[in-house]
């Protein structure tokens, strides 16, 4: 049966079309405003777009828009993050008024925070959430950490390279990486370390950060391309290497490890060897790419100054078939039933904790720091029966469910 299952999957993969399909969305479709600053995707697959005049939620069919009339503290939304409870955090700036700050939305209620509550500055440019559910906010006056009750502020006096913090990322060791106007600052909870051009960084003006499955850090700059840092060595890529333009606004990494860079002149995709360019000629609604997100089906979502473009490049078809075959269960394993081992396909690029339990809720195995496209589970020694899978994303806190049958002969 194992041979037959592998053969079936081989046939399915061979039939997947590599044709690319572009779908564009603008205010004419339901988007609240065409200028996109950030994109986030929740556990239910809803897309959330931060715009220059409010927030739009898209469930694949319907649009829902949120503004100050609904509870946002300001319509100029710079950034979005989603915590492990599914709460959406919107960082806003000064738009039409001198107010700003952060708005939290739990799906029903809105709660806003600003300098009066403890935020260091009302113009919030970046948000990141760590494994303890602390919320980190980057502003032009430093960084604020919020643990749900207490606020803590960090500035250059503490160790930041600059108080102007435009991006935050958190690695697998829970180190915080702050992209500033004067380089990168790493904070391990106690010690600070700064990296600038003198260390190997391509440029000091950091515009985006992304961390790949190997824990390499990718730092985008405003004028000198992108630098990859493996904690020892620096590698820089620019328009001479194949990048479409040296100014980068956004980065995302897909399930195959491809890096996607958003620039003012379009998108560059890098598979670690080859570069591919995408512009309005290919189907983008606009060339200035301010945000990129990748959904669980592998579709790429690009935020521009002219609306949103979705790229379906064929990589999602197998996941759609899997979801249909599993009757709504998030995770797919093959072969299923399993004799000695089963392969689990991971939903998208991330760092996961996997828990395997029996039907009584007893934990049989647990694995941490799982990355990549798939992982092989050894089921030798399992008692025959049904086992439940729970896969938790370290980045977003999203939990994916699945099950498989083990046969012990």
Unreliable runs: 1-18, 316-329
Which CATH C-level class of the largest domain is it? Mainly Beta
The CATH superfamily of the largest domain turns out to be YVTN repeat-like/Quinoprotein amine dehydrogenase
Q: Outline the biggest β-sheet.
A: 4 strands, antiparallel
State mean pLDDT (0 to 100 scale): 88
Taking the alpha carbons of the first and last residues, their distance comes to 14 Å
CATH fold-level label of the largest domain: Methylamine Dehydrogenase, Chain H
What is the structural class?
Answer: mainly beta
Describe this protein's structure.
The protein is mainly beta and 409 residues long. It has 2 domains: 19-316, YVTN repeat-like/Quinoprotein amine dehydrogenase (Methylamine Dehydrogenase, Chain H, 7 Propeller), CATH 2.130.10.10; 318-406, Immunoglobulin-like (Sandwich). It contains 2 helices and 35 strands. It has a 4-stranded antiparallel β-sheet with strand order 1-28-27-26, with no helix packed on it. It has a 4-stranded antiparallel β-sheet with strand order 2-3-4-5, with no helix packed on it. Strands 6-7-8-9 form a 4-stranded antiparallel β-sheet, with no helix packed on it. The radius of gyration is 22 Å and the shape is globular.
Topology of this protein?
Elements: H1 2-15, E1 21-25, E2 36-41, E3 47-51, E4 54-58, E5 63-66, E6 77-82, E7 88-92, E8 101-105, E9 110-113, E10 126-129, E11 135-139, E12 142-146, E13 151-154, E14 165-170, E15 176-180, E16 183-187, E17 192-195, E18 206-211, E19 217-221, E20 226-229, E21 234-237, E22 250-253, E23 259-263, E24 266-270, E25 275-278, E26 289-294, E27 300-304, E28 307-312, H2 317-325, E29 332-334, E30 341-345, E31 352-358, E32 363-370, E33 374-378, E34 385-393, E35 399-406
């Amino acid at each position: 049966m194992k041979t037959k299952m592998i053969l079936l999957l081989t046939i399915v993969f061979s039939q997947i079309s590599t044709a690319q399909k572009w779908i564009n969305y603008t205010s004419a479709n339901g988007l609240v405003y065409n200028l996109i600053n950030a994109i986030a995707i929740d556990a239910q697959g809803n897309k959330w777009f931060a715009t220059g005049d409010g927030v739009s939620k898209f469930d694949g069919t319907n649009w829902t828009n949120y503004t100050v009339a609904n509870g946002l503290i300001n319509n100029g939304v710079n950034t979005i993050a989603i915590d492990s409870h599914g709460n959406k955090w919107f960082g806003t700036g000064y738009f039409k008024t001198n107010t700003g700050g952060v708005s939290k939305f739990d799906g029903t209620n809105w709660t806003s925070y600003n300098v009066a509550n403890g935020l260091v500055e009302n113009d919030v440019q970046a948000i990141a959430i760590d494994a303890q559910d602390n919320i980190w906010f980057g502003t032009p006056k430093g960084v604020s950490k919020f643990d749900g009750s207490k606020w803590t502020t960090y500035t250059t006096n503490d160790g930041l390279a600059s108080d102007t913090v435009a991006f935050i990322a958190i690695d697998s060791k829970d180190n915080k990486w702050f992209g500033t106007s004067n380089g990168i600052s790493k904070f391990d909870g106690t010690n600070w370390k700064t990296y600038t051009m003198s260390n190997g960084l391509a440029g000091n003006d950091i515009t985006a950060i992304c961390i790949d499955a190997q824990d390499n850090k990718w730092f985008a700059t405003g004028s000198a391309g992108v630098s990859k840092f493996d904690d020892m060595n620096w590698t820089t890529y620019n328009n001479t290497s194949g990048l479409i333009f040296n100014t980068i606004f956004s980065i995302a990494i897909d399930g195959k490890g491809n890096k996607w860079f958003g620039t003012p002149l379009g998108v560059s995709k890098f598979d670690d060897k080859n570069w591919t360019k995408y512009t309005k000629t290919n189907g983008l609604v606009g060339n200035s790419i301010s945000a990129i997100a990748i959904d669980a089906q592998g579709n790429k979502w690009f935020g521009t100054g002219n609306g949103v473009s979705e790229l379906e490049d064929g990589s999602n078809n197998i996941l759609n078939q899997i979801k249909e075959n599993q009757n709504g269960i998030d995770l797919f394993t093959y072969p299923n039933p399993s004799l000695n081992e089963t392969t689990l396909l991971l939903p998208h690029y991330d760092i996961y904790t996997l828990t395997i339990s029996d039907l009584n809720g007893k934990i049989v195995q647990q694995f941490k720091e799982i990355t990549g496209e798939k992982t092989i589970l050894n089921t030798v020694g399992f008692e025959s029966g049904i086992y439940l899978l729970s896969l938790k994303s370290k980045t977003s806190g999203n939990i994916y469910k699945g099950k498989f049958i083990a046969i012990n002969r």
